[in-house]
Design brief:
The protein contains no helices and eleven strands. The protein is an all-beta fold. It is globular and about 40 Å long.
Length: 126
C-alpha cells in the first residue's frame, strides 16, 4: 500500500516562498498532485504531474507562481511556491493516483487520487 510523507510548509510572510516535498513508498503510483483546503472550502487542485514528469497542470489561482516537479529515483514530488499571498493560507496535501492511466496522464480532480498525505499547514501572514 502506497504511503506518502510530506515535509515543508509553515509560516511565511506575504511575498515569501516555501517548498514542499512528498516521498512515496510501499507500492505503485502514477500521477501525483498537490491539493489545498482552507477552512470551510473545498479541496482544490494546486498542481498535478504525470508519471513521466513531462505533463504538469495547475490550479487557475497559481498564475505561474508555483512549480511542481518529481524525482523518480527518490520517489519524491516537490512543490515550489513563490510570491505567496495571504489567500494561499490552507492545509496542503500530497496525493497519489494508483491507477495506471499512462505515462502522460495528469489528474485534476481530488476524486481521482486514492492515497493522501497527512497534510501540512501553510500560513501566509500579511
Amino acid at each position: 500500500q502506497v504511503q506518502l510523507v510530506e515535509s515543508g510548509g509553515g509560516l511565511v510572510e506575504a511575498g515569501g516562498s516555501l517548498r514542499f516535498s512528498c516521498t512515496a513508498s510501499g507500492g505503485k503510483y502514477y500521477a501525483m498532485g498537490w491539493f489545498r483546503q482552507a477552512p470551510g472550502k473545498e479541496r482544490d487542485l494546486v498542481a498535478g504531474i504525470s508519471m513521466s514528469g513531462a505533463v504538469r497542470t495547475y490550479g487557475d489561482f497559481v498564475k505561474g507562481r508555483f512549480a511542481i516537479s518529481r524525482d523518480t529515483p527518490s520517489d519524491t514530488v516537490y512543490l515550489e511556491m513563490l510570491s505567496l499571498e495571504v489567500e494561499d493560507t490552507a492545509v496542503y496535501y500530497c496525493a497519489a493516483d494508483t491507477t495506471d492511466n499512462g505515462l502522460e496522464y495528469t489528474a485534476r480532480r481530488a476524486s481521482e487520487y486514492d492515497v493522501w498525505g497527512q497534510g501540512t499547514q501553510v500560513t501566509v501572514a500579511s
